[in-house]
Amino acid sequence: MSVACSRSSLGMMASGVINVVRGSRSSVEELLQIYNHSESVALVVDSPEMFNRIAQTFYSKTSMRFLILLWGEKSHLLGEMNKELPVFSFMEIMDLGQQSRKTSSHDTKQHYVYEAINSDDIAAIMYTSGTTGNPKGVMLTHRNLLHQMKNLWDIVPAGPGDRFLSMLPSWHAYERACEYFIFSHGIEQVYTTVRNLKDDLKRYQPHYLIAVPLVYETLYSGIQKQISTSSFVRKLVALTFIRVSLAYMECKRIYEGNCLTTHQNQPSYVYSILDWLWARIVAIILYPVHALAKKLVYSKIHSAIGISKAGISGGGSLPLHVDKFFEAIGVKLQNGYGLTETAPVNAARRPGCNVIGSVGPPIRYVEFKTVDPETDEVLPPGSKGLLKVRGPQVMKGYYKNPSATDQAIDKDGWLNTGDIGWIVPRHSIGRSRHSGGMVVVEGRAKDTIVLSTGENVEPIELEEAAMRSSLIQQIVVVGQDKRRLGAVIVPNKEEIAKTARNMSIIDSNSSFVSKEQVTSLIYKELRKWTSESSFQIGPILLVNEPFSIDNGLMTPTMKIRRDKVVAQYREQIDDLYK
Description:
GO terms for molecular function: long-chain fatty acid [acyl-carrier-protein] ligase activity. The chain has 578 residues and is an alpha/beta fold. The strands form seven sheets. A six-stranded mixed β-sheet has the order 8-7-9-12-13-14, with helices on both faces. A four-stranded mixed β-sheet has the order 1-5-6-17, with helices on both faces. The protein has a four-stranded antiparallel β-sheet with strand order 15-16-18-19. Helix 6 crosses helix 7 (173-184) and helix 10 (232-255) crosses helix 12. Mean pLDDT is 87; it is low at 263-270 and 431-435.
């Protein structure tokens, strides 16, 4: 399905047609809004079932000229639509293209005039995921997409013989850029789904995995669960090995000069000789155990998941504990940073400069700066502020929304990312030769919670810490204009029941845990995992229904819609503070 989608989008762009992409799981209302707002003239759908779901609404509220069906039989379309609307299969479109070329080459009287495509012409309109409101149409030019194709090799030095595994939809900006890069370098691409990911990793043994952080979190949780269900001895050995490997890699990063440290948001410019020497000594002591762990434990994990060269993470915040875990077991993760508005990659860690805690240096021809959110004054490297980015990857603007474009991009071409972060000063990472220019992203500026005490809290740090608990499936920290923080939590019922039985809170044959018991267990986990934060989570709201794409509480790119969660549970959240 993704292959046909990719080929159709490439064909459209090659002929100068602007394509507008969206996932088939989007609501009918959202698809209709995007279709009409983008002034589209036709639909390309992946199956008759997809079109039948939206047919009545689109037929009455749009003026479609024709329909292209990528898969399935035209006879499966709703009868009324099938009769009145011109429908073409994907192969018919291919045949029409071949016929037109034959006609133009043999008929000297017939001439086809094609307008030259300019690099600044719009290639695609990609609508944002809508985490903060209605989706906006991002106008990406041919220049934007070509910049990605030409410069992603610095991040992923792949070529013929390498195999990529991807599970992102083709309409995702991250997936689209990666696909174009892969195709242009003759690399093998394998598509999978959430359901088939585990089996396909083992079957295809990919050199690279292209995925969002949630996928790596899922793999991490699966490995942890497999360890926890092992016999007592196996579990003890595995956990001991992992702790040793984590400590070994921490020391290794210090003596190799790849450890990013801050003190009160200011970078530590130089490690002392004593720190460097101590890290070296401890690493030498721990290495034999780490090497044994690689042979006895980690090799089995590698055979199950492949990823022999690197996992590329983008499209969201990669939790630090997940990042460190995969480093410890010898699976390289390269974290990147991008936006739909930047086609999308702005920065990424490199194979030879993979500093955990950062999103790496900018890719070629991309500039970053940090500014004061209030005054827009440019801040020096090492100072936390609002991140702005400039370069050939920045969008042309938002379609039919000049005011939003002006708010996002200033007269000098700097795009306001809406993210808080800082640029690593030169020589701030120990003795690393890659010390300057790396970017650290610490969260969305718009996600900042301002308590009634005047204190500002970045909720994502607490949420990432809390998600380390196996008892918490999902969490959204709340507390805007309140005296203290709270949280909306989806508990992991299976793990809670298991923990309750192990602690003899409930009978060994029972699976029912009372709300009070669940609350007590969750509070213990929150205190355990967020103890290092200066902010603690107070009242919590337990909800049974997970946040998902289907119920509108997650975007199609699997990010939690914080504002939607808060809006849906507004009354219950208010009750927490009474």
